[in-house]
Amino acid sequence: MTPFPPASTEAEFDALTREALLPAVTTLTKSIGLDGTPVVPFTEGSLPVYAAGEKLVLKLYPPVYADELGTELAMLETLHGRLPIPTPGVEASGEHEGWGYVLMERLPGRTLAEAWPELSTEDKRRLAPGLGETLAALHAVDDPALAILEPKDWTEFIAGRRAAAVEHHRATGLHEDWVAQIPGFLAAVDLGTPKPVPLHTEFMRDHLMVAPGDDGWRLTGLFDFEPAMRGAAEYDFVATGLFVSSGDADFLRRLLLAYGYGPDQLGDDFARRCLAYTLLHVYSNLPWYLRVMPAPPEPTLDALARTWWATA
Questions:
Q1: What are the beta bridge partners of residue 231?
Q2: Contacts of 65 (CB under 8 A, 6+ apart)
Q3: What is the DSSP string of 32-74?
Q4: Is the dihedral of CA 237, 243, 244, 246 positive or negative?
Q5: pLDDT tens per residue, range 44-84
Q6: Residue 135 · residue 245 · CB < 8 Å
């Protein structure tokens, strides 16, 4: 019987490896009826995740991130069977030696990130509407079980992010020429007072599953809900624009039209709102995005918005 190590601080958790946790994970799987099931760590993800045989996945939540168990569990249980593409069903969940866990179904296929280089332009175009429809269905879910999601007050959350925006981006190492533009840009963008909806917040190729079929590639799942929030729907288009369409205007347009936008709603104002939410996003890292995304024609935030969230 191998116990889980302490991980009540970020430093303690960061010092652990998934391989080092395997003996404790094996003890846990035995206790939940999976004695003899091979357990293999996945390499991706911010939290430890393991394949438990061929059909199940075990995800762990160390004490320092204990709150994320409740968020993910609420999303998994509420969304299962309610979206156009599958989400993992929950087989078991609980707490073991201070660590939370969820045992869930394993989705078929490969991540869209892994398959992306193999997809033709037409393959990608065919997938775009399904992604838009999935986000629309997610944002339409209205269930008391999701009252657990933070923040409780979206307006207050955005105000706090605005106040911290300059220092947040300066801390990432963003060049001062960009930092200096942030207050004026945010002040000029009207985000309105949108109704809060459930948000994935990391709707990206790494968290989407696909598989080839007789009529081309198809979406086979969406996973990783522990960073879910409740807020403005367009907050979810930050990750979508950066890590799915990645500057492909035609792809993003197809996705957004399927989501429910009209052609007249797509343009500079939409793009500027998406960049504003990018600047306000809790995980925003503009230096990284500037390295991997298409370069704007000029070094301004307006040009950046038009380049990264172009739809024409």
A1: 197
A2: 13, 47, 226
A3: TT-TT--EEE-S-SSS-EEEETTTEEEEEE-GGGTHHHHHHHH
A4: positive
A5: 888 999 999 999 999 999 999 999 999 999 999 999 999 99
A6: no
